[in-house]
Model the fold of this input.
Amino acid sequence: MDLFEPGSGFTIQHHDYQPGIAPSGLFWTVPIPEDAYRRQGNTIRYSLTDFAVEDTFQIFGPVGVPATVTFDITWVASGPVRHLRPTSSDPNAATAFAAEFRNAVATGSFSGTSVTELGGDPFSFAGTASSAGVFAETGTERNGSFLVLPTLD
Amino acid sequence: MAWENERGFEVPKLRIVAGAVALLLIAALAGCLDGGPAAPVEKATVAERTIDSSPFQRHQHLEDLMAQRRTSFLLRSQVSKSGTQYVVSPPGDTAPLPIPGGLFPGIHVFAPGPVAFGFSGEDTEPNTITNFRGTIGHAFLLGLATGSDGETYEFLNDMRVFSGNYVSADGTHHVGTFGFI
Done:
């Protein structure tokens, strides 16, 4: 979750909330409570309350402070199912997975609080956002050991 | 002709968004783009067990990055006195593993979305976890936020959720739910 200077074209960043990179290299991904995710028909919901993260102010910023974020996002899938299959035998490829996805529109409310860099008053924010006109998708997928990559050589 | 989405953001700005994210990644990873083989991992003793190489040797670039820039407070206890980052999977490590590929060496994530907006393409892997079978949701969300300082901010959120079966670092099968923030 990234906050930018208005009108800067998303080039001047003020806050960067993320849970860090795991020792294994797992990127900004953390276990969450089971009830933080719900799926019903064409709709999924992903919500967390006061979830502990870090505010590094900029992406990969050298300084980080404890922070929490709260959000509630709902995806509503629409349109046809896209059947995706691996197009490479390279496990590093961006297409090394199989999926049945549908494009979606996601909307949500977001808020967060972080200790300021200089130890002053905590900073907090609240707002809403939507993927309309950008990109969202939902569906099922498999990769790695759950997938046999094609032999294309 | 520029057109606006429902939030009032002009589409050309979305290209700037993607470009800005890419530039930030590139800037942060300067010196990590040689594309060559990972640096050799020096021999180390971990939990009274001598290993010749890390099972995650491909992450040497990331380890160097972390040692230099502090990208995760989770790693501090695992940095040796020499500064070398050791990443091992002890027995019983039920954490998931990252996808092997990614935007850059050591950055195990792709940016699925329309190429016209500067993303990797809609057919790109949205998951950050490998050995996974389950359901996912992925979205780039744009919006406005009000800060406690009275200022208005534009915010860009890449939010993902993964729920299903996975094979963990120690090779065992599990069911879990994970969030990308």
User: Anything to note?
Assistant: Chain A touches chain B through 94 residues (CB under 8 Å).
